[in-house]
Predict the structure.
Amino acid sequence: MPNENWYKMEMQANGTPTIFLYDVIGGSFFDEGTQASAFAKEFKAITDKNPKNIHVRINSPGGRVTDGTAIFSLLSEHKDKITVFVDGIAASIAALIAMAGNKRIMAKSALFMIHNPSGCACGNSEDMRAMADLMDKVAGQLLDRLTEASGGDREQIEAQMHAQTWFDAQEAVDAGFAHEISDMEAVAFASANAEPRMLAQALKGMPKPKIAAPAKKEKEHDMSDQAKAASLAELKAVLPGADADFILAQLEAKATETDALKAFTAEQDKRLETQKAETAKAEAETLKAKEDAEKKLAAVLKAGGVLPLESDADESENSIENPKAEWRDAIAAKVKQGHSRQRAVGAVVRENPELHAAYLGACNQGR
């Protein structure tokens, strides 16, 4: 059963229509039908009162792609009037919704995440292949929208989606996903019934949204969590982007929704640190290769322009001299073999993780 309170719309005291997306987009991953229809009706009603300036505040782990793309399209029709604030987290389809803003502002501790869409299928092998084709098509559409809105490099964003990439506020600005960073601290993801003190901090003096009985709701939620372990459906709903192994581990541990979400957040933080470490390592290796090349050039000049016949001259044979060119060539080779673009990228990521890492490192360095 979907959570009908996954969004909130209010007219602020200063006359600005404000939309709060502080929960799973669509309210549930598993309910039939499209939940964006009610959103569209309320959006029209509130924006008709003041169509010149609309605020959208996001703190969401993502949700249903169909609802998210519908909301993105709806907001995009008013793009020149939309200011988006990422108050805590804009992940998965919530990241796409954030791109509908003409002005996009990240809280200084907020996070932004992009990845390929996930789905599930039940049936025979043809059903599975059809679902895979659909996932590829949806991923391509999301890539188009993210590239268009950010003005970034399409190939780089494609590689980042395959890697499931997290951006802090400054990285989101550098990548074109946001325009500026506010002084406010990020709001921890809680649900639509967020604690009023945290909302007040996020909104900087603006009237807090009239969300019914937040303290009581939080307490009731905690009590139910302690009373029973989360079901598979509940874990999938609160852990968008989590892989099957992680969800199974939480089921085996009989984790509550709260404990599972904490564990997932810790794992994502660890993954982000690993990505940063890998990028730093790639940058260090690139710097070392550059220094080695300069030393070799100096030796050539010292020898009167003759390249020394050194046994270590072959050391660089296995290095990736031009990651961007080799990345494109590897994908082109897969496409030539009959793979679709999305499957070609996925195959290269799986078969040559070193090239994938080197390509992302080269993109981060602007080479």
About this structure: The chain has a mean pLDDT of 78. The beta strands are 8-11, 17-21, 54-60, 82-91, 103-107, 111-114, 165-168, 180-182. The longest helix spans residues 257-302. The first strand starts at residue 8 and ends at 11.
